[in-house]
Structures are given as C-alpha cells and as structure tokens.
C-alpha cells in the first residue's frame, strides 16, 4: 500500500519523529519489562522471608529457655531484616562504579561483594560493639534494661524500614545515619532530650556536607589528572606506561591504609606512623608489580582512549573486593550492634556501654548483608553505576580511589563520614567535572562553530529537552538522593519514636 503524503513527514528518513506504531511497541516493551521485574521480585521476597524465619529458629536454639527468649527471637528477626536492607542498599556503593564501567558483570560483582562482605563481617567485624550507636544516648540515664531493650528494638526496626523504603525509591542512603536516627528517636521518646549528646549529633549532621564534597573534589581532581596526563597525550601508550603504575600504587597504598584503619580496626589498631609505613611499603610493592604488568598489557595496544580503559579493569575489580571487605567489617555493626545489645540485656538484665557479639549474631548479620545484596541489590547498583552519570573504567577508578582517600583524610581530621555519601558524592563529582570540562573544551567549541555554519552562522536556541539531554549528571537523581540524605536521620528518628511509643503502650 503506498504511503500517503500526509504520512511521509512522520515516517520519512529525514524526520525526527517516531512512528506512532514504534511508540506503541515501545510502551508494550516497557510494560512487559515492568511485569517481568515484578514477577522476579516475588521469589526474592519469599527467600528473604525464609531467611528471617531461619534466623528466628536459629536464635531460638541459642536463647533456649533463658529469660527474654521471645524478645531475643524477635530481635534476631528484626536484625536479620536490617542486614538484608543494608545489603540491598549500602553494598551497591562498593561495586556500582565497577559494574557501570563494565569492568564487572552484575553477577560477578554480586558474587565478589557477597563473599568479601561476609568475610569482612566474620573476620574483622569485631567481637565487641557499642550498645548505643556512636554514643548518642547516655546509657546511665536509661531507667531499666527493659526500656533499653525496647529502645534498641524500635531503633533497629525503624532504621530497617527507612532503608527498605529508600531502596524501593531508588535512593542510596547511609545505613549508619539510619541507625543513628533510630537510636535518637527511640531515645528521645523513652528518656527525653537530656540523654542525647547533641555535640555528637551535630558532628554527624556535619558529615552530610563534608562526605560528598570531599569525595567529589578528590574524584574530580584525579579525573582531571588522568585527562591531562593520559587521555589528551599524543602518545597515550607511553603515558599509560608512565602513569598507570603510579595510580595503581596510590590506590593500593590508600586501600592498604584504609583496611588497616577501618577494615581491621576491631582486631588491630596500629598508630599513625605504622599506618604510614605500611602504606609506603604497599605503594612500592604495587608500583614495582604494576610496571611490567602494564607494559605487557599495552603491547600492541592501539593509541586510543578505548584501549587505555582496559588497563583499569583489574584495579577496579580489586577495589570492589576491598571496599566490600571493609564495609562488611565496619557496617555489619549497624545490624549486629543493637541485636547484640538486646541479647545481652535480655539475658543478664543489665546494660553496659559495650557488649560482646555472639558468633551466631555475627552470622545472621553477615549472611543477611550478602543475601540482601543478591536478592535486592542490583537496582541500586545500576543507579550508582550507570544512571547518575555514565561510568567508564577511568571514572570508576577515580571514584574508588576517592572513597579510600576520603575516609583516610576524614579519619585523621576527626570528621565522621559516610561511605555511601563519599562514593555517591564522588560519582556526582566526576559527572559535574565532566560537564564543566566538556563545556569549556576546544572540541565542544569546534562543535558549536560547525553547528552554526550548518545554520548559516545563526546560533540556534536549543530546546529544553535537548539541553536536558546534554547534562552529564541526571538532575532528578541528584536532587532525589540529596533529599533522601537530608531526611534520613529525622525520618528514622520519627519512625523509631512512634514504634517505641506504640510498643510501650502495648506492653
């Protein structure tokens, strides 16, 4: 059937409009993908519920006929729920950039992260934790161990619910800030404002600003270094042989110091001179190992940016594993800390500022984080790694390096920071730097001149949609994530306060 004249403008080769049939087919494909996503979610929910049931049964054997056994079982289930939400939300920051850069497949990233998260929790998760996260509430002002148990239960449940909601909405948030908010809200409802250390709360609030800013600046600085010294060099291969071993050495030294300070802090606490000496030795060893490796990898390599990216794959994989190990050792306390405190108080009838962590509690925390990542983590992984701004191995390398260096700098300055805020801030920093750099680049100005020539010298006003697509950072994700960061502590606090008041009324 011949095409009518009235239809030619819609389907012609020179047209920018999509045929209505294509649009309808695209809508059907989107609906089918949404249906498949929902159908895949139900088995994951079933497995998560099964895990929580196993956690409850497991804890019942551990509690036995001890006083407060029902509370211990309930706390184990809630602690397992919190661990699942940590895995679903927080762990994405460790592997998201590597997945977005195509250095790791989603399956490979999930396997590596799950193994190293569990290993970090079990090997270096700590046998003793603080009962009141970050020292927010003075335990001496809590009237009884029973009230203390309900404070911890309310904080744990509220923080898990908030992280669950944030994950559903696609916002990577700090689980540490979430549990801090939970403890604050439940403590306020139970004891009052006098029991809160507002200086500690102020320093935590300060980290909302410092973490992403420091992470973004460091990541942007390293990306600028890579652009100047590798990407825009005439002989890219020679430049890579000179500078990639240096960058690998810096990353290795940073992660070595990071693991000693954060990942192994529960089992070994060396001083600053020892940490500096370890970092220098690791740098030297990594540099000497990387030089011949880079030379072998670059033999016969084409003199273009696409080839250079392959040199950053292995460092990215290593960084994802090390970040996951450090995260498992550090942030598992957000799930097992309150749970261990509940077990101790419910069993002994007393409360203290620090308690031992039974091995079965650590197993629930470590297994829950790994399982939560497998079942529900891919969505946040994609957001962090691909949807905020486009990643490639060089940009992802800058993000991972920034995460380790920012934690080191902040620790020495005594600033409380969030790894989530650092990594996501570094992703934003890389994206905004690229926007500014591209806008000022000669290549961009040449494009504009060429575009004006095609329009007979007349500058064409870009349509709003075209301007939107030329932004290298998605503003919707930026504003949504920042808003979620700001309201995490007050939201978790409000949920915990309501939960505690309801529990107090019911009992």
UniProtKB/TrEMBL annotation:
A single BP term in Gene Ontology: phosphate ion transmembrane transport
Primary location group: membrane
Region (Disordered): 1-20
Entry keyword annotation includes Transport: yes
Cellular component GO terms, alphabetical: membrane
Domain of life: Bacteria
InterPro entries reported for this sequence: Phos_transporter
Subcellular location: Membrane
GO molecular function: phosphate transmembrane transporter activity
Keywords tagged on the record: Membrane, Phosphate transport, Transmembrane, Transmembrane helix, Transport
Pfam families in UniProt: PHO4 (PF01384)
Membrane topology listed for this record: Multi-pass membrane protein
Keyword field contains Iron: no
Spans through the membrane: 41-59, 65-84, 104-127, 147-167, 179-201, 213-231, 243-260, 272-290, 311-329, 357-376, 396-415, 421-437, 478-501
Similarity section: Belongs to the inorganic phosphate transporter (PiT) (TC 2.A.20) family.
Name used for this protein in its record: Phosphate transporter
Originating organism: Methyloceanibacter caenitepidi
């Amino acid at each position: 059937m011949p095409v009518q004249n009235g239809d030619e403008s819609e389907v012609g080769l020179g047209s920018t409009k999509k045929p209505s049939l294509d649009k309808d087919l695209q809508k059907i494909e989107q609906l089918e993908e949404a249906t498949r996503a929902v159908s895949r979610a139900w088995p994951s929910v079933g497995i998560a519920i099964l895990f929580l049931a196993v956690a409850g049964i497991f804890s019942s054997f551990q509690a036995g006929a001890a006083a407060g056994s029902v509370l211990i079982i309930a706390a184990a289930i809630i602690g397992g729920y919190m661990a699942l939400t940590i895995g679903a939300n927080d762990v994405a920051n460790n592997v998201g950039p590597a997945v977005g850069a195509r250095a790791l497949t989603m399956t490979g990233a999930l396997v590596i992260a799950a193994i190293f998260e569990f290993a970090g929790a079990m090997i270096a998760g700590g046998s003793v934790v603080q009962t009141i996260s970050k020292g927010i509430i003075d335990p001496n002002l809590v009237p009884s161990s029973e009230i203390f148990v309900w404070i911890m239960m309310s904080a744990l449940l509220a923080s898990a619910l908030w992280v669950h909601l944030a994950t559903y909405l696609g916002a990577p948030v700090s689980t540490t800030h979430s549990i801090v908010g939970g403890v604050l809200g439940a403590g306020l409802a139970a004891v009052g404002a006098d029991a809160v250390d507002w200086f500690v709360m102020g320093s935590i609030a300060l980290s909302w600003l410092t973490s992403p800013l420091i992470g973004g600046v460091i990541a942007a600085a390293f990306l600028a270094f890579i652009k100047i010294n590798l990407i825009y060099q005439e002989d890219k291969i020679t430049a890579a042989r000179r500078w990639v071993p240096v960058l690998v050495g810096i990353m290795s030294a940073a992660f070595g110091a990071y693991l000693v300070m954060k990942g192994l802090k529960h089992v070994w606490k060396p001083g600053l001179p020892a940490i500096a000496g370890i970092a220098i030795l690791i740098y030297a060893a990594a540099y000497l190992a990387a030089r011949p490796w880079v030379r072998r990898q670059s033999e016969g390599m084409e003199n273009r940016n696409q080839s250079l990216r392959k040199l950053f794959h292995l460092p990215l994989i290593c960084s994802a594993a090390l970040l996951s190990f450090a995260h498992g050792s550090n942030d598992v306390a957000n799930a097992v800390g309150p749970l261990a405190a509940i077990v101790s108080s419910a069993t002994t009838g007393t409360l203290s500022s620090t308690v031992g962590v039974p091995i079965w509690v650590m197993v629930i925390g470590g297994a829950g984080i790994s399982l939560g990542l497998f079942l529900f983590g891919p969505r946040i992984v994609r957001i962090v790694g691909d949807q905020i701004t486009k990643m490639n191995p060089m940009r992802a390398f800058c993000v991972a390096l920034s995460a380790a260096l920012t934690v080191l700098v902040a620790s020495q300055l005594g600033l409380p920071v969030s790894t989530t805020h650092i990594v996501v801030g570094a992703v934003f920093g890389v994206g905004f730097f690229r926007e500014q750099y591209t806008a000022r680049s000669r290549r961009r100005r040449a494009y504009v001149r060429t575009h004006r020539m095609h329009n007979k010298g007349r500058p064409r006003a870009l349509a709003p949609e075209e301007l939107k697509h030329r932004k290298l950072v998605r503003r919707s994700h930026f504003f949504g994530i920042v808003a979620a960061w700001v309201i995490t502590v007050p939201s978790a606090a409000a949920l915990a306060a309501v939960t505690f008041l309801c529990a107090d009324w019911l009992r």
